[in-house]
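Our preliminary data section would be incomplete without showing what the modeling component actually yields. Below, a chain of 400 amino acids is followed by its predicted structure, encoded as tokens that our downstream tools consume directly.
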Amino acid sequence: MVQLQEENVQPIPNGFQKRPPIIPDETDLPLSNIYLEQDVSWNDITHAAGVYDWFRSNSFRIAQGENLQFYIYWYDESDLYVDQVAIYNEKYRDAFITNAIDFQTDVVGPLQDAYQSSMSDNRLQDFYYDEPFMLTARSRGILQNAIPTILGSSTNVHVNGATGSLPEYFLHFDNKYAKVSQNAPYKNYVLFNMYPFGETCIYEQWKVQEKLNDLIKCSSFRGSHEAYSYNYAGLLPSQIAAQQYDEEPENDLPLFMTLQVHAEHELDANGNYVQNLVRGKRPPTKDEIFAMGNVSLAYGVKGFMYYMVPTRSEERYDGNWGTYGLFDQNEPPQHPRYNYLTKAGTWQNPALEQDTNERYTAVREFISSVKPMESSLLKLKWLAAKYWDETSANPKKLDK
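Predicted structure:
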């Protein structure tokens, strides 16, 4: 928490003090209600030349999985403008604030040593970050720029990853900061992933239509943010990000989509199903797979990625998770196939013999349906799209 007061005094050294909550506890649940207060004077946030300046607060620690809120109380009649707020962790501090981490010595050099023998291997393609968040943007930009040094003549390799279902604000941030300069190397594609069909999502047409609408464009921050483009996630914001927020076709990136062909369930320590209405996913039907695929093509998607074999993550702060893609283990009766309705086979082992399932067949049929127009679609530049649904006979225009 930062309190600003217009007095020509310096802030209290190491000025974190525990004080009674200013905001009522009930408004901050489920926060830990730890309030850290810091007094700041006007000359700490005003540059000597009268221009904007950065103020850096004292450091603090927050546990993994906790939420963070901060408040600024301004006790004066003078104008205060807060244009940017940046929150960074210890690794970022060491790499970009204190320079305790030297990228050339501590990162680029070891990578070059590790991959020296693989430089001529064409199978080496990407350094993949799953759903990279903003704190990795600058480091990914440096790695992207260093790849020619690390891997020599290998032109296919780059640093990339899935965007997650993040709104336009985060995509724009990544476009600006995940490269060391405007003309420096950037990623070769934008990979968008969003899985609309939740664990208990019903199969009624109106609900499926609602979820497909969300796949195109859905509100993230809600409330007072509804009017602003930075608030929205979906295929539309991702396509605009792939076009790099300009009208120049030469720098457009292909948009790839990780199609929901899988289910996700929380599991307990013994591998038993635990209902999770926030993150859990049900497996989509064949018609839903076709609908999501064709909607993606309408928004300019050039390629698809899928969850293939069953996977599980056994150490997460929010529980154990199983993911069930296009293949299921098939060694009954000890290891039954996954079944969404009965929740049998939720503890899958990808090392066991695998069989294709009905979603695999649906994906194969969808790919076959696209093949006749594949070469034409790959050459097209996306401009705009309209859609209809059962609630309105008028087309809804969703473009830039």
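The two ends are 38 Å apart (CA to CA). Residues 1-33 have pLDDT under 50 and may be disordered. Preliminary results of this kind motivate Aim 1 of the renewal.
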